[in-house]
Amino acid sequence: MNPSQGLVTALNKMREMSVSEGSVYHQYIPVVTEDTSIAEFGQPILDENLTIVRNEFIGLLKRIVFTAVNTKLFKNPLADLEGERIPLGYAGQDIHVNPAKGRKFNVNDFAGLLQKYEAQVATQYLTVNMDLQYPVTITRAKLKDAFVSWGTLEDFITGLINSLYNGAYIDAYKYTKALVTSAYVGNKAQIEVVTAPTTEATDKAFVKRIRELHTRFQLPSTQFNAWEKVNEGVEGAFPIVTWTDPSDIMVMIRADIEAEIDVEVLASAFNMSKADFLGRVIVVDDFDVYDDEGTKIQDGSNILGMVFDKSFFKIKTQDFEMDEFYNPNNRTWQYYLNVVKMYNYSAFANAVILATALPTTGGGEGNQS
């Protein structure tokens, strides 16, 4: 059996890293080709007299395992909603300044030259609120078994991917969906009660409302952001004016709802072709939130979808790095994928959750259509 092209690329990348860094790994490990035998490649790594080569293999592997067999990775459909990386110790602010209000011109208003005109500035505080670690242990026995054939080596690397990166990516998908559910359950987003599309008439009504929201989001308004709603009763609170560029308007929708409506018709609501529109719609399985034991902790079954400005999601990564440690006590290597992120949503951004009922918690009323 010959090594796959992905495996060849990954293993040779490891060797190139060793050359550029001046380590000894590349001095013992050959360039892998279709004709290289697994025994030739693995012999120096498993040699008990070449511990340094084996340790460097483990260290280099942590840096390329992500790209080794990338077809095995879970493709998070919500990944594009994440922003840029953030610095260490980050606790930031999301600031919105309302448009200035016009005043009538008065040629005799000399006092107005020295008058102070306060801008309406709203601030939302964002913090890092997710710190998870994904560990996996590699034993010497597992390492030896990995070098039986190219297939077992690829399975070994794939196993690391499944255990580490897929765990992190699946959690990222769940955490992102949970932001929508949290905003709904806490009544901290604009919520409209609509009828679930099940007939031709309700399908048309659902698409019509999405088309209307797409148009109205583009116009200056206080109606579609949640700032005034979440600050209701706060002294000095004021509505903020927002609008959204057409290219930033997206739809997140439940899979069963997306299957019910005509995508061609939905695309026309955005004045786009079906092919272009598919880049603006994100299909998710549901909006329920579960804990690590599989117990539902937030019910999102009333949520059909959401029309939103992409800036609604305030997701940033502070740390996404893998470390390794050799434990001589039990002769194992520990891999740790450390993930530190900020998961927040913006009360400034236009976003309307379409649901079959208002939330029963969170206080206050949602908008109804």
Main-sheet strand order equals: 4-12-9-5-6
| Global Rg | 27 Å
Strand content: 15-25%
- Helix fraction, binned, reads 25-40%
Secondary-structure element sequence? HHHHEEEHHHEHHEHHHEEEEEEE
Mean pLDDT level? 86
Task: Name the structural class.
Answer: alpha+beta
* Form type: elongated
Extract low-pLDDT stretches. 363-369
What does this structure look like?
It contains twelve helices and twelve strands. With 369 residues, the protein is of the alpha+beta class. Among the domains are: 1-68, no CATH class; 177-316 and 343-355, no CATH class. The chain is elongated and about 90 Å long.
Layout of strands and helices, then pairs:
Elements (H helix, E strand, L loop, with lengths): L4 H17 L3 H4 L9 H9 L4 H18 L22 E7 L23 E7 L2 E10 H7 L3 H14 L1 H21 L4 E4 L6 H18 L9 H4 L18 E6 H6 L2 H7 L4 H4 L3 E4 L4 E2 L5 E3 L4 E7 L3 E15 L4 E14 L5 E5 L14
Parallel strand pairs: 4-12, 5-6
Antiparallel strand pairs: 1-2, 3-11, 5-9, 7-8, 9-12, 10-11
Helix pairs in contact: 1-4, 5-6, 8-11
Q: Which tags fit this structure?
A:
single chain; 369 residues; alpha+beta; five-stranded mixed beta sheet; three-stranded antiparallel beta sheet; 12 helices; 12 strands; 35% helix; disordered C terminus
Quick recap:
The chain is of the alpha+beta class.
